[in-house]
Amino acid sequence: MLRHITTGIDGSTESLAAAHWAAREALRRGVALNLVHAWTLHPRPAPSVPADRSERGWAEETLDTAVGSIRAAHPGLRIVELLVRDSPVDALLAAGEEAELLVLGSRGLGGVAGFMTGSVSQRIVARSACPVVLVRAGASSSAEHLPAPGGVSPDEIPETPYRDVVLGLDTGHPCDELIDFAFTSARRRNAALHVIHAFSAPPFHIADGGPVPPTGPELLAFQEHSVVAALRPWGEKYPEVRVTETVSEGRAATALVRASAGASLVVVGRRTRDSRFGAHVGAVTHAVLHHVGRPVAVVPHD
Question: Is 66 exposed, middle or buried (0-12, 13-18, 19+ CB in 10 A)?
């Protein structure tokens, strides 16, 4: 089967920004791009459907408009158009089963509210078997790169370096899929990888005769060593990737949001085990999706 990335189209500015991001990623990977638009027939047409269009006709027009925009910007990219009569969640989850990556628009509610709780995107992130990238409106090619000299657009200077890829790392559960995704993303961009690890000091308690847990500078040194140990095999596998680590005490979400300001991509994980409340994305990943304005990749792992 032809290798490809899948992106969802719904006519919004967020989905169009996601489609253009997915097109650039498909070119970086040398794969095709599948554009999926899902539609359903309602007893009464949705308010977004013009009065002189049928729901199917409007769905076809919406997809055609997006395809035209992508073809104009990326004429060498192989594009597959898929118009599916199904719910967006079911259609995109099914399409993602065969994809290397699923890219969706993130419809933010502003700088604080950010990622909309309960949205189509969040339901897909919580259930997708493949990595999902969430993209906000306005995520242009130039935003992925460092500022070009003289105010020239990075689009006009292909050599303009990419901003860092940021990885949130939990040394208690270092996941191969997550770390590999971050390293390969940095390598494709010839970008640096900035690894963020935040930790909390354990409650102070000394059991009779038991070892005394490290505190203060000793605890920081222990955490830094654990990060270096977790990354060592990946640095050997990807020696061309420049890696920096930031290890700090505090909340992981806060550290990731702070580091994301200068990133081209933020990479976080999602454990695939369902809780008794159903599939979820985890507290740190949920907070990152709420507050980070850069594209965020959510990688499922055991």
Answer: buried
Q: For residue 193, what pLDDT is reported?
A: 98
pTM of the predicted structure, to 2 decimals:
0.89
The DSSP symbol for 150 reads G
Which structural domains are found in the chain, ordered by start? 1-139 (3.40.50.620), 150-302 (3.40.50.12370)
Q: SS3 of 242, please?
A: coil
Euclidean distance between the first and the last CA atom of the chain, given in angstroms as a whole number: 26
Interacting residues of 210 by C-beta distance below 8 A, sequence separation 6+: none
Which pLDDT score is estimated for 294?
94
Q: How far apart are CA 34 and CA 285, in angstroms?
A: 26
Q: How many CA atoms lie within 13 A of 143 on its CB side?
A: 16
Look-up of token digits 């105010």: 151
CA separation for the pair 107, 10 (Å, rounded): 11
H or E element in which residue 220 lies: helix 216-237
Are 36 and 63 a contacting pair, CB within 8 Å? no
Residue 109: per-residue pLDDT: 43
Residue with tokens 């027939």: 41
The pairing of strands 32-39 and 79-85 is parallel
CA torsion, ordered 125, 141, 261, 138, to nearest 10 deg: -70
- pLDDT means per 10 residues, the chain with 302 residues, are 91 94 97 95 70 82 96 96 94 95 77 49 91 92 82 64 96 92 98 96 60 75 95 97 96 95 95 62 89 94 86
Amino acid at position 133, single letter: V
Quick count: other Cβ atoms within 10 Å of Cβ 250?
12
Q: What is the pLDDT of residue 206?
A: 53
CA distance 130 to 110: 27
Q: Point out which residues pair with 39 in neighbouring strands.
A: 85
